[in-house]
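In the laboratory, one determines a bound structure by crystallizing the protein with its ligand and collecting diffraction data. In a computational setting the workflow is compressed into a single prediction: the sequence and the ligand go in, and a structural description comes out. We illustrate the idea with VHF.
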Amino acid sequence: MLVERKDLKNAKRIVVKVGSSTITHANGKCDFARIDKLARELADWQNQGKEMILVTSGAVAVGVDRLGLPEKPKTIPGKQAAAAVGQGILMHTYEKIFAEYGQVVAQVLLTRMETIDRHRYTNARNTFMELLRQRVIPIVNENDVVALDELKIGDNDNMSALVASIVDADLVIILSDVDGLYTANPQTHPDAKLVSRVEEITAEIEASAGGAGSSVGTGGMFTKIQAAKNATTSGINLVIASGSEKDAISRILEGEEVGTLFVSKENRLQFRKRWLAFGARIMGSVTVDEGCEKAIKKAGGCSILPVGIVGVQGDFEAGNTVSVLTKEGREIARGLCHYSSEELKKIIGCQSSEIEDRVGHKAFDEVIHRDDLVILN
Ligand SMILES: Nc1ncnc2c1ncn2[C@@H]1O[C@H](COP(=O)(O)OP(=O)(O)O)[C@@H](O)[C@H]1O
Ligand SMILES: N[C@@H](CCC(=O)OP(=O)(O)O)C(=O)O
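The predicted complex, in structure-token form:
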């Protein structure tokens, strides 16, 4: 069933991305009024039980201003130095303003490594989940200071889709200096029309997306379309709207027709399970006993606990995908394993309460959580 605007009211976990142009004035100084409104809206929705995550750009722009540079540096070290200066100012500003609304925030700096390396991916996910559990709003940016060129995500539009997939968000809202996707770049085509709904990202839509419209923006509409593609394929809806539009976040979450909605086609769980079943690289296997086999196969399904495991094969890391085998060696399921093969060998057949003593830490009670488990026919 295709998503309608009113369905966005049900979004529980929401990633909001703001571009440099949204939170800074044209001269690169912080736009406090805008940041204040943003923080107030996010804190208010958080108070109503939603889980909000902010992805914010602006470190370079703010750093350029603080360093008194005439323009954005062209060299990588120049940009990294500006980001190092600006990121602190950005966080200081958010921390102060969110504190006024009684909202605790956390800085999360990510690089592309967190997508490539499943161990880091899992670690990042665990940290996000813990922050959300403690009702903290994570404030995310790329770790520009250390991200090397080839290991850079490069833009926060793609970062917002990535964060949404890491935390299994329901919705991404990208706030920009433009009020959505137009049929052509509105800066060069004044008669271009706003598109309010996109069900399929066609070649024509991709062609209509040009580069950054402002001197501080990075990817323009192009990277927003890339983000929309990633999010919607992963089963996550995405809206692009204007950061200067009054109460844009609230109006979107109330189901109003604001900006452009990119509709997710796939059911998120199905997509993840499909990926697990057919896309992921199988790095090893765990053998389970009959009781465990029955438990994971019954309707609703159970997670795999250490007590049901009788064997571990291969050499894999926490976060890798593994096969689940019967004692006869038949593959009955695949799933994302929370523990490495080395750790698993220490907890075979034991109670979850013993994990910490045997492994030295306990990230999860489950070896494979049922949400990360696909049962094969
Ligand atoms: N088809 C399009 N529809 C809307 N905006 C577009 C389109 N093609 C290019 N753009 C440009 O993309 C800009 C938004 O991207 P950008 O400047 O990077 O903002 P941000 O800092 O929010 O990421 C708009 O101001 C606009 O000039
Ligand atoms: N990480 C960079 C921003 C990169 C980026 O995507 O910028 P923007 O196009 O303004 O969202 C920074 O904080 O300056």
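The chain is about 40% helix and 20% strand. Keep in mind that any predicted model is a hypothesis to be tested, not a measurement.
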